Amino acid sequence: MYQLIALVLTFMLIPILIKFKVKLGYAILTTAMVLGMVSGIGISSFFNAVSGVFTSSSSQNTILVVTMVSILGGVMKHYGILDVIVDTMQKVIGSKRNIITIIPAMVGFLTIPGGAILSAPFVNRIGEEIELSPPRRAAINLVFRHLAMFLLPFSTSIIIVPTILPDFSIPFLILLNSVFVAGIVITGYIMFLRDIRLEQVEAKERNLRNILKLALYISPIYVCVIITGITGIPFYLTMFSSLLIVYILGNKKDFLTTMVKSINYKIVITVTSVLIMQSTIMKMTDMLEIFNNIFQASDNFFTIALVLLITSTFFGFMTGYKVAALAITLPLIAQLNVSYEMIHVYVYIATGCAFIGYFFSPLHLCQAFTVQIMNVSTLDLYKEYRLYAPILILILVISAFVFSLVL
User: Fold this and answer.
1) 278-331 confidence digits (pLDDT tens)
2) Phi, psi at residue 142, to the nearest 5°?
3) What is the distance, to the nearest Å, from the Cα of residue 150 to the centroid of all Cα atoms in its chain?
4) Cβ distance 245 to 219 under 8 Å?
5) How far is CA 311 from CA 25, 304, 393, in A?
């Protein structure tokens, strides 16, 4: 219980430090160091958590990918690639309200950490043109950025499930997830887009030439995904091919200098701090045991669902990492003696709650990057979410209950 209390109290340092104008990355790093000292895991264990971030291949990959994404976003903006994409999209699609949702959803299919770095400048520019407030722009970028993770079979939060539950059906889970995704889209539209009043604009230049031009200028975003998918080469290496395309499309002047200047060190510090915080929390085994014991005492749908909701949301929020929350809750579900269909319902609850906790966490990388790029305070963004968060929870709970009755 001590570790749980220590984590909750220590986590409160983040909004306090942000209120005193401490940059988010440094606020998270400071909080992680304090947690390491007061959590009771010991100095050596905390040191292992920190060193593990720099020696773990997955952590190294995350840091390198985020660094490369910041470079790609920087050079695409510097050489006007972002402007060409937005202008061409308007000719092909017409409605800026549609474009501001399509771009983050499209980038979401990249399934790389920190992909919001790429979509945020697009959304920011269009949001300025249609006079949306910065917090509203940030919310739109984040809401529509995260749809793909529920539907792509190679999303990390879906891939992890059959590794713990071998007889699990991924297509069945994706079918259930599609209901939650529909809720996210409808709620996001009603809360953040419905009140936008724009003149109806027809896509008068929706011709093959502009469609091909759009495909060409978007290619730096997708070519790395295609190459990685075919060859298995890490993203941070295949993204050099994306940079090569930008070099060819741009004016080539001072390209290497622009690449170096495009490295966003604040973002690199933020992602490293988040990884240290996540690693520290996962060392707190006494706290993890508390949740396991509570789950073992649950014996019906409502108590199990409630424990999953609390546990998955809690660890999603505290780690800012959906997979970390699932790594804790899925082994608990594996112990249940219930029907094949109900296993899927419980996993649906766990994945949905892990997403909700992760989505609203200050450690959520896409949120951290979006607020930095759009110069929005985390507190102002949370004010924008004040109704959105409880509605998402309600959608998840109601849909899960209906599934438990009909499956």
Assistant:
1) 888 888 888 878 777 777 777 788 888 888 898 899 888 988 888 888 888 888
2) -75, -40
3) 11
4) yes
5) 26, 10, 14
Cα distance between residue 22 and residue 370, in whole Å? 17
Q: Please work out, in degrees rounded to the nearest 5, the angle formed at the alpha carbon of residue 276 by the alpha carbons of 346 and 239.
A: 85
Q: Where are the alpha helices (DSSP H) in 198-300?
A: 208-231, 235-249, 255-262, 265-281, 285-296
**What is the identity of the amino acid at 295?**
F
Q: Supply 215's token pair.
A: 């495909």
Place of tokens 């292992």: 48
One-letter amino acid identity for 292?
A: N
pLDDT tens sequence across 48-74: 888 888 888 878 888 888 888 888 888
User: What is the residue type of 403?
Assistant: F
In eight-state DSSP terms, residue 150 is G
In angstroms, the Cα distances linking 185 to 25, 133, 140, 152 are: 30, 20, 10, 16
Angle in degrees, 0-180, between the axes of helices 322-334 and 285-296, rounded to the nearest 10: 40
Whole-model pTM: value is 0.79
- How far is residue 256 CA from its own chain's centroid? 30
Rg (CA), the chain: 21
Read off the tokens for 236.
């941070």
Residue 295: count of CB within 10 angstroms of its CB: 21
